[in-house]
Amino acid sequence: MNKQVICSIIFSLLLFSPAGSIGYAADDVVSWISSRARPLNSGGDLDTMIEIAGERRLVLTGEASHGTREYYAWRDTISRRLLEDHGFNFIAVEGDWASLYELNRYVKGKPGAAASAREVLEQLDRWPLWMWGNEEIVALAEWMRSYNEDLPEKERAGFYGMDVYDEFRSKEAVLAFLETHDRDLYDQARNYYNCFSPYGGDSWEYAQSVARGIGDECSSHTEAVYSLFEQHRRHLKDLAGEEYYYALQNTRVVKNAEKFYRKSVAHQDASAWNSRARHMNTTVNFLLDIYGEDARGIVWAHNTHIGDARFTEMQQFNQENIGQLARVEHGPEEVFLVGFSTYQGEVKAGAQWEGAMQRMEVPPARSGSIEAVFESTGLDAFHLLFDDGDRTHDGFMEPRGNRAIGVVYNPRNDHQQNYVNTIVPLRYDAVLFFRETEVLTPLFR
Questions:
Q1: Residue spans in the chain of domains classed CATH 3.40.1660.10
Q2: Which of 58, 242, 253, 395 is the right S-S partner for 170, CB 3.0 to 4.6 Å?
Q3: Phi and psi (nearest 5°) for 390?
Q4: Which one, of 435, 420, 419, lies nearest residue 375 by Cα?
Q5: Rg of the chain's alpha carbons, rounded to an integer?
């Protein structure tokens, strides 16, 4: 599809109603989808998709919620195939770098690593605990540990968090690293990070203080620590080996988190969202660099992060995401985006931020949404691979609501608040659909 057509489609997103109603005959679209739907009963049903995705540099796998068992289980299936059959090097997830690095140490069998994946995940203490502290991640991590045992150390697959949160844990990790390896640099970094001391580990308090003009901005301080690590790269890497990269990324987390929180408070626009998206994208590129020229990676994140934002209503608000950034930087032929969706079921979520984990009902999808169209096929579970034919079918190319449930959810407001208008065959390269889904299995009560 040429750029003029794509630009025309993007511009049309400015015009359509939030209701996402279907302008073309619904039966025609359902029939079109039914003729292309591929069954989803076992991992072997994904053979064609895995073969296509296995040739790409990055495979980004989504989810329509952070609390659905099927999303985790099928991303696990996809990831194992890409690691084992196609030599992918790592999984990067929408989680915290510092705390999940302990799981990376475990799956790689590093000296001093925890005794089990469960031991690592039971130590997680930042809400929402269920997002990574669940039985589904335990199963994947234990498989990765077993898979890595027969590989040379440099070829072992890693598991990493790529998000911008938990920055005070990252700050502590930076100082602990320097205290062990270089006391002079430790003293310099500690002095820079003392800028945050008045806020007791509360980044929101810091950002609000700066916005009110009663606190000092710490951006130059975080940049200075990051620069210390860059300037002394050879020295620190000689002392610490691979652990240098862990510490370097922690300095990046602190630097970019400061920016994210400050922008969240000071700006009523997309700047904070975009700073987080760029951090995740930078982290994935950082991992590709670490693993070498031919490295390939897998990403786990919400559909709102991995589905190309240019083909959703997000572009009206100038919001970017990692799916968009990856396609632009690496080229669409090197990136494969997999969306996930469900018609109804249950989900783990909280009623408010840091609220109690609840099992919530996911009501039948809104009329006119892509989930409602998928459900009309009568199939319980299937996947679609999008080719040029799908991207020229007028009815399928019409924008529709695509459900997006976060860690905070209110089922009563589902039809009003939880849909992102989307041109599905352009936002993703493939979609997995489940008519009814179940909750994942948290390690925590």
A1: 15-161+295-437
A2: 253
A3: -65, -30
A4: 435
A5: 22
CA distance 42 to 49: 13
What token pair was written down for 180?
Answer: 């062990």
CA-CA distance, 441 to 433, in Å (whole number)?
Answer: 20
As given in the structure block, the two tokens for residue 211 are: 């916005």
State yes or no: pLDDT of 274 exceeds 60.
yes
Instruction: Classify domain 15-161+295-437 at the CATH topology level.
Output: EreA/ChaN-like  fold (3.40.1660)
The two beta strands, 381-385 and 90-93, are: unpaired
- Residue 237 CA to residue 194 CA, distance in Å, equals 25
Low-confidence winner among 54-58, 222-226, 266-270, 271-275 (lowest mean pLDDT): 266-270
Predicted pLDDT at 3: 46
Q: In the numeric block, which tokens belong to residue 182? A: 């270089």
Task: State residue 5's pLDDT score.
Answer: 46
Q: Quick one: pLDDT at residue 25? A: 56
pLDDT at 136: 98
CA distances in angstroms from 281 to 162, 286, 407, 420, listed in the order given: 8, 9, 21, 21
Rounded to an integer, what is the distance from CA 171 to the centroid of its chain? Answer: 22
Q: How confident is the model at residue 388 (pLDDT cuts 50, 70, 90)?
A: confident
Provide CB contacts within 8 A for 15, sequence distance 6+. Answer: none
Crossing angle for the helix pair 167-181 and 183-193, to the nearest 10 degrees: 150
Residues 6+ apart with CB under 8 A from 244: 229, 233, 236, 237
Residue 284's contacts (CB-CB under 8 Å, 6 or more residues apart) are 58, 92, 162, 297, 299, 322, 326
CA gap 436, 362 in Å, rounded: 9
What is residue 151's predicted lDDT score, i.e. its pLDDT?
96
Structure tokens at 312: 């959703």
